[in-house]
C-alpha cells in the first residue's frame, strides 16, 4: 500500500485526530468510512431522483409484480 500526504487545515486535522481517538480508528480508516458513506448517500440520492421520475408505465408494471409476488391465501 502506498501512502500520501494531504494538506488540511489545522482545525480539520484536529477534528480527524479527535474522532479517530474516540472511535479507536486510524485516520485512513475514518476517512475511508466517511467517503464510503458519502458515496452511498450520492447513490441513494441518484436512486431517489430516478424513482421520482418514474412514469405511469413503470408504476403499472410495479403493481403487476407486487400482486404477482404476494403470497397465496393458503400460504399464510
Protein described:
It is a single chain. The protein has 76 residues and is mostly helical. The protein has helices spanning 10-23, 27-52, 56-68.
The gist of it:
With 76 residues, the chain is an all-alpha fold. The protein has helices at residues 10-23, 27-52, 56-68. It starts with 9 loop residues before the first helix and ends in an 8-residue tail after the last helix.
Helical coverage, percent range: 55-70%
Q: How confident is the prediction overall: mean pLDDT?
A: 89
H-E string? HHH
What is the terminal-to-terminal distance? 54 Å
Strand fraction equals under 5%
Tally of alpha and pi helices: 3
**Class per helix and strand makeup:** mainly alpha
Radius of gyration: 23 Å
Task: Specify the overall morphology.
Answer: elongated
Quantity of strands, as a count: 0
Sketch the major β-sheet. Answer: none
Note poorly predicted spans: none
What layout of secondary structure does this protein have?
Elements: H1 10-23, H2 27-52, H3 56-68
Give the tags.
single chain, 76 residues, mainly alpha, 0% strand, elongated
Amino acid at each position: 500500500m502506498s501512502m500520501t500526504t494531504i494538506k488540511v487545515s489545522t482545525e480539520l486535522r484536529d477534528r480527524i485526530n479527535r474522532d479517530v481517538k474516540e472511535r479507536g480508528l486510524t485516520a485512513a480508516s475514518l476517512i475511508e468510512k466517511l467517503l464510503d458513506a458519502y458515496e452511498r448517500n450520492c447513490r441513494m440520492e441518484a436512486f431517489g431522483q430516478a424513482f421520482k421520475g418514474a412514469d405511469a408505465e413503470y408504476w403499472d408494471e410495479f403493481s403487476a409484480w407486487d400482486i404477482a409476488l404476494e403470497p397465496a391465501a393458503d400460504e399464510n
